[in-house]
Amino acid sequence: MSIGETLANELAHEAIATRRHLERVPEDKFGWKPHERSMALGALASHLANIPEWAGVTMNTTFLDLDTGQYRPLEATTRAELLAAFDKFVAASKDTLAAKPDEEYMVPWSMKFGGKVAFSMPRIAVLRSMILNHSVHHRAQLGVYLRLLGVDVPSTYGPSADEQPAR
Hints:
The chain is mostly helical and 167 residues long. The chain has one domain (3-159): dinb family like domain (Four Helix Bundle (Hemerythrin (Met), subunit A), Up-down Bundle), CATH 1.20.120. It contains 5 helices and 3 strands. It has helices at residues 3-23, 41-50, 53-60, 79-99, 123-148; strands at residues 63-65, 108-113, 116-122. Strands 1-2-3 form a 3-stranded mixed β-sheet. Strand 2 and strand 3 form a beta hairpin. Helix 3 (53-60) runs antiparallel to helix 5 (123-148). The mean pLDDT is 95.
């Protein structure tokens, strides 16, 4: 199995749990924050839904300068919009990842702010750290938000406390 096929399968596997979390985001709470310095629920959910898109960006470019205005993050206003964007980004990124030859994963990729390099690393490292691991981190954060709002937290790698039979 190629590097790309392996990463595409991992993205698909993680997307199942991520989608279950996004499905439970209450639309009437998009502006809610657990703390004044926290992201609003809608912003966090949009960010999480947007992350899979970055796999295609990473594999089809050698850098992204966030200050140029070329990249516009998702700002969903409904759960349906979140889910539609997430599904589109996952499908496109899985196809992109699976189609790239192994050597493309070793090409350096950089993130820039105002033309200055913030970091540069091989694409495979970007995919692992800034996309797959980043997504897992924010999915867990979303799970905490759901818990604080009294929404049942879905399973991730096994049944959640809300899906366990009462003891």
